[in-house]
Amino acid sequence: MLFKPDLNETAKAAGDRVARVASRARRRTVSIAITLLIIGGLGYIAWTTLQQRQAANRNARPDLPVPVLAATPRIQDVPVYLDGVGAVRALNNVLVRSQVDGKLIAVNFTEGQDVRKGDVLAEIDPVLYKAQYDQAVAKKAQDEAQLANQRLDLARYQ
Predict the structure, then answer these.
(1) Element housing 123 (H / E)
(2) Which residues, 6 or more positions from 96, have their beta carbon under 8 angstroms from its beta carbon?
(3) What sign has the CA pseudo-torsion 41, 46, 49, 50?
(4) Dihedral, CA atoms, 61, 65, 69, 74, nearest 10 degrees?
(5) Alpha carbon distance 155, 158 (integer Å)
(6) How far is residue 31's CA from residue 45's CA, in Å, rounded to a whole number?
(7) Which residue of 12, 14, 36, 87 has the fewest CB atoms within a 10 Å radius of its CB?
(8) Distance between the two ends of the chain, CA-based, in angstroms?
(9) How far is CA 112 from CA 92, 97, 107, 125, 153, in A?
(10) Which residues contact 105 (CB under 8 A, 6 or more apart)?
(11) CA 122 to CA 8: how far, in whole Å?
């Protein structure tokens, strides 16, 4: 009988070879990645050290003499300027509220202007109030007419 190799054995051998090649490739990839990380870290450390040295060299002052200008002394006033950050508050605060509502026609003051008691500060559109007044006058006339009729009825039934 002739020797026939088992197909399963050849397949297992081929699979083992593929597994070995794949594991080598994985090891190689991991080792390259680690090497690149180490080289990158060393490069970063070298770069920051170089930048710090250059910054120190830029800030270093050479020991040169300082130029000085001389002037003749004289007596004069020195202006004083004060600069500061802060908030300004008024001595008195006033809350201005309207007694009536409506559309403004005119504003008779400017911001920051001093005003006195009784000054007209704004004018409101009188159309709404004129209509209400006319209604009240008409209602009064109606009530007076009704009162006159009731008096006549009273006089008639007495």
Answers:
(1) strand 122-124
(2) 121
(3) negative
(4) 100
(5) 5
(6) 21
(7) 87
(8) 154
(9) 13, 17, 13, 25, 65
(10) 123, 124, 125
(11) 106
Would you state the structure tokens that stand for residue 2, as one six-digit string? 């002739």
> Could you give the percent of the chain with pLDDT greater than 90?
37
Q: Looking at this protein, which amino acid is placed at residue 65?
A: P
Tokens of 62: 């050479």
pLDDT, one tens digit per residue, over 77-112 is 989 988 888 888 888 888 877 778 888 899 998 888
On whether the CB atoms of residues 104 and 98 are closer than 8 A, the answer is no
pTM of the model: 0.34
- Cβ atoms within 10 Å, residue 133: 11
Joined together, the tokens standing for residue 131 give 């209509």
